[in-house]
Amino acid sequence: MKILRVLPSMGIGGIEKSVYDFTIEALSLGHKVIIASGPGELLPFLHSKGAILYNLPMDKKNPAVFIRSVKRLRKLIEQETPDIIHTESRFPCWVVHYARKYFPEIPVVTSIHNFYSRRLYSQPTGKGDIVITVSEALKEYAVEYLKAPKEKIRVVYNGVEEDFLNIEKVASSVVRVGMIARFTKGKGHFYLLQALKKLNKEGIKFQGLIIGAGSSRYKSKLERWIKTNGLTDIIGVRQMDAKEALKHIDILVTPSIQPEGFGRTVIEAQMSKTPVIGTNIGAIPELIKDGETGFLVSPHSADMIAEKIKKLIEDASLFRQISEKAQKSALQKFSLQKIVSDTFDVYNELLEQR
After folding, report:
1. Are 322 and 347 in the same domain?
2. What residues make up the domain containing 290?
3. Domains held by the chain: number
4. What is the predicted pLDDT for the residue at 64?
5. 3-class secondary-structure state, position 108
6. Do 307 and 348 belong together in one domain?
């Protein structure tokens, strides 16, 4: 099968990583994958594995770029004649929506990864011949706010490579509580910090590690808070990739206060036998069965976070049980091989209808 994937760029991000993982696996199965995107760090790796790459700049959302992108994509489709066009993110969905008018026989899949704004600009993400959402929460959102027909939506979770099974923890004399997320307000960093402050006052021994990238201003705000509250000796703010970070984290907290479309770091942690405490919003409840494969807490609740951290620190048997059940669940539901297989089931369903 020849698949054309269209997306804004191939940098280091959640959507890009999902497309990258899919492409590597699809190529290994003998399929052809064409990537039409703007620039990004992942492109050289894809090229070395045999992906066909086209430069299709879509990082500037203005009419001139849009018209140029539609023309380029139309020419690309004519030249490559893909069996399936699969696009994600709003601007590329608009580009595909207009370019494919010249090729109505080629089925289009759109993917929805996030809770987009409810404006007209987001509508094309729900207009594919089949719409993939990466969670049940996003499926409900797509039906209600993007007016996507329910019968055309398929839920295909993001997959995580099994390398995370082989992560070996760096030895530590105390339990390390961490968070891996972009430095933005919606991720809820300060609720974890408040929980750690509470535990420190109670005399609980731990180390805190805040891992992320993004706004340097927000990062500085976190560091100032830690310093002001006298916690610099036990809480650090760092930047490193998830695999490296999980070597130094024994309990992962995802205290999001805005809905998550999926929650990749939750699954990565579960794969590595790292128990997760997450907020009960968005897709996170689909990834964590409360009390069995992790803990769910209310958003904006530092006290609940502190309570669950304390429970895991003080009960080694519970810690072990949750870690093992979470890893087993993650392997069954979110392995990369399963997700790629589910995606090809969607493609084949469309092709059989033609």
Report:
1. no
2. 162-334
3. 2
4. 87
5. strand
6. no
Q: Which two tokens stand for residue 327?
A: 């890893």
Same domain, 180 and 132: no
Distances (CA, A) of 30 to 35, 45, 242, 288: 16, 17, 29, 34
Q: What is the CATH number of the domain that holds 325?
A: 3.40.50.2000
Note whether 183 and 307 are same-domain residues.
yes
Dihedral Cα 266, 272, 275, 281, nearest 10 deg: 10
Q: What is the pLDDT of residues 50-78, one digit of tens each?
A: 999 999 987 667 888 899 999 999 999 99
Residues 179 and 142 in one domain: no
The tokens of 65 are what? 């770029």
Task: Compute the average pLDDT of residues 171-200.
Answer: 96
Strand arrangement, sheet containing 130-133: 52-55, 32-37, 2-6, 84-88, 108-112, 130-133, 153-155
Name the pTM for this structure. 0.91
Domain shared by 110 and 217, yes or no: no
Closest CA to 219 of 258, 184, 176, 255: 184
pLDDT surpassing 90 at residue 108:
yes
Q: How far is Cα 280 from Cα 270, in angstroms, rounded to an integer?
A: 17
| 86 pLDDT higher than 90 | yes
Residue 187's nearest CA partner among 170, 212, 152, 151 is: 212
The answer on 258 and 349 residing in a single domain is: no
**pLDDT tens-digit readout, 113-141:** 999 876 788 989 999 999 999 999 999 99
Q: Are residues 201 and 97 in the same domain?
A: no
